[in-house]
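User: Some background: our group keeps a shared notebook of sequences we're curious about, and every so often someone picks one and asks for a predicted structure to add to the entry. Today it's my turn. The entry only has the sequence so far, pasted here. Could you supply the structure so I can complete it?
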Amino acid sequence: MSYDLEQENKEILARYKDLISNTYRTLDEENNKLIRKAFDIALDAHKDQRRKSGEPYIYHPIAVAKIVATEIGLGATSIACALLHDVIEDSDYTYEDLKKIFGEKIANIVNGLTKISIMNHQNISVQSENYRKLLLTLSEDFRVILIKIADRLHNMRTLESMAPDKQKKIASETVYIYAPMAHRLGLYNIKSELEDLSLKYNNPDVYKEITEKLELAKESRERYIEEFKKEVSEKLNEEGLNFKIKGRAKAISSIYRKMLKQGVSFEEVFDNYAIRIIYKSDAKNEKFLAWKIYSIVTDVYHSNPSRMRDWITQPRSTGYESLHLTVLGPDKKWIEVQIRSERMDEIAEKGVAAHYKYKEGYKQSSEDRNFENWVTEIREVLEQQQDLSTSELLDNIKLNLYSKEVFVFTPKGEIKILPTNATALDFAFSVHSDLGMKCLGAKINGKLVPISYVLQNGDQIDILSSQNQKPKSDWLEFVVTSKAKSKIKSYLNSQKNQLVEDGKEILQRKLRHAKINFNDEEINKLQKFFNLKSSQELFLKFQSNELDASSLRKYIESKNVFNNLLSRFRKSPAKNTTFVEPKEQNLDMIVFGKDEEKLNYSYAKCCTVIPGDKIFGFITISDGIKVHSDNCPNAINLRAQYDYRVIPAKWVNAESFKNRVKIEIEGLDRMGMINDITTVISGAMGMDMKSMSIESNDGIFTGTIILEVKNKSQLEQTFTKLNDINGVSRVRRLQS
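Assistant: Of course. Here's the predicted structure to add to the notebook entry:
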């Protein structure tokens, strides 16, 4: 392919100037020289490289640098690192070279980014090893994570040129790892965009449907916002306030989550857009003006007190500040209104880490403390959990990522922020690990409560402890913080290890007595004989006396019988034996991989697959290939963690196959409703109905029906006919 190099060079220069134009107002001459030097090195390093789309590779680092500068709000050091982030990995430049040219700080950040990228290209057993790598950078330089998020955002924006299976893999990893991280760093806009783009590639039909419906509703939305502006602006102007009112549609992924959670259609999601009132204020009057605006808005429109959220009096741990209220606006429609100052809005847009911590020349203020506390907590978790698998670590940390928060007080009146559903025991561990280990109970507002007590906003907590108290396994059932879980698990594991050692010694003695060698082969045979999952379990059963000398005798007897049979078969050769391979039914139903191979498979139990569904194969460790639907609840996790075990799959002979599908139907109850439903299914569609249960309550009925269907189009036709029945309001397929 031929390229217009002259035109491309002009475009590269134009993109660089665009990057600089967004930063020159905030950076001095020295910083601009640093960025220029980084750009020149990146340009040289990538001069012969192109992206999958055919574009010069240098477009990518420039775009990442622009995200870092404008959307996250980082300074010159980070912009330079963004321009250089692929230099070590993709060119002859080394860490030592960058160290000589730019100094140790920049070289270390670029090296941190390189380590994560190299991880991305390896088929390691758990793909989310990247996540551990990301988190470990907390102890080095936080900018590594922020630049990596910017890198991932640009890759997601330019994913069209990748192969479909690569698109799904990258999208799944993004929603599994990078979106939660962006959320936790207060990068809400980036988090929403990452989730939306992930949905675009993981579930394109849903994405397209919601996008089109939002576009159709755009005109009425804008009209609604204008009416709101007109009514509220008049009152705010009377008070002499300096403000602007903006309206925006909610993120596509957020709307989709609500549809799934509430089991409703797009049209039934009542708050799919929000209004934001942003006001100018000095530091002294910020809170006062927020509540003044709140008072004016609620004078004009009725508010819903249950949906009121005050993040100004007590900001989130990410530093997010805002007043959220839901009001009955024009046309009597509920709408969310967010009230925040310009400073609060910048933090909400760009994240507390970026806004405070890494602007050049910034001196740490008290407003960083929440964020610093979180960083410290993550570091502690990492230090305590070296032995955990990455997926376990991931689960532990994600417990605290999306969780909403509860605010409680120590006996001295200090505020502690914990995730919602945290217990008195979580609080004890958050104060000090030793206090958690010895926790007996607590006094909440002077009243005695157990350690499982779920904390409420405003509780004042005094922990009761005892030197004789020790963690128990049931403690894990009522803690939610990763710190508490990891400490309890660590203690229980150390106790378990001691019991395992004791059991091992007991078994060794018994085998010696029976004149049987103690070795790995024998241990494996014992494990299989007693149907146990691990050697640890075997040793523990001997330690607890669940297995004893009589159990061992049974094993020895079976062993002798097996050896006798084996010797008989060895002596007498088989007579005229022919092996007949068992017939596979419907083997031509699904083919796998690029070569469309016919392989043995079975259907996963976590989702219902019917012919016509988009599907993929997953190679399990012990149970062959499992076929999953693309919409399977586990699809994202499987693609994110074990992409190397995911294989493309497609249907070839759908008509000869029947599968059971569970559907839910709702509507207004009336005489003859059940008859109409059964007539459609058994009569018009000629389908086999395996079971049906319908409940009616106060004129509303809900039913679940199990059908035997041939393919997806038959199911869709059935849905259309059921929806046409008078009184039926909703029909949907349930994933089993």
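Suggested note for the entry: Confidence is low (pLDDT under 50) at residues 122-127, 356-367, 568-588. The longest helix spans residues 482-513.
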